[in-house]
Amino acid sequence: MSKIEHRVALVTGTSSGIGLVTAQALRRDGYRVFGTSRKPMSNTPDGITMLICDVTDDASVQTAVDEVLSRAGRIDLLVNNAGIGLLGGAEESSAAQAKAVFDVNVFGVLRMTNAVLPVMRRQRRGRIVNLSSILGLIPAPYNALYASTKHAIEGYSESLDHEVRTQGIRIVLVEPGVTRTSFEENLTRPDQPLAFYDTSRADAEKLMREIIEKGDAPDVVAATVVRAANAASPKRRYTAGKSAGQVRFMRRFLPESFVDKNLRKFSRLPD
User: Which of 13, 111, 184, 188 shows the smallest number of beta carbons within 10 Å?
Assistant: First the structure.
């Protein structure tokens, strides 16, 4: 029996992919797990209590948090996983579309966190794991807006951790590499496509498909989340998978010119 069997976890975006596998991993580790999805699911994962929650809606977020408290009385762990992707040239998206991506990937994290922090403060303990990405560490051609949201999550999480650490709460980042999830899931196309980018956009999508096929299993990310959730003295960030660790090392220790050249080569862009 796990020594943390009594702890309660809330995981957003658990209808499939990383969120679902993470919720299942936490359940196996002894947590009582509540998951969220924007719409009702036809098949509810065994052992996971599913709630409807739209992270772009303040009232929906608060209702979900209140429901967890009503049923379990506490929240020890929040995993902010819900997110959407956007592939295309940066100038192919309107400001409205960019705001919509940020509303889910950044302000959704903020809404969930703001709703849970008072609970954790009353408990005098709690942990929040924010799902970032290696694209929060490096440039991402044709994923500029998505990468921008992950860069924002990096800065937000690290800063918030310093603010709440004395309250018994820790904020940590998990940075997955390329993960084998459904490519079509949560991926948005530009709302103002330009013919100039048609070939480059198609090439970027082809490359993404290729690298996803060779990516890490979602279980790799889930195991990293569990480790980050349970660490007695958590690190600021955890990379999930070999490729993520390599990217982090490259960005941190190698010259910018070297990183730039290799990024363009990997992205199949001309020098």
Answer: 184
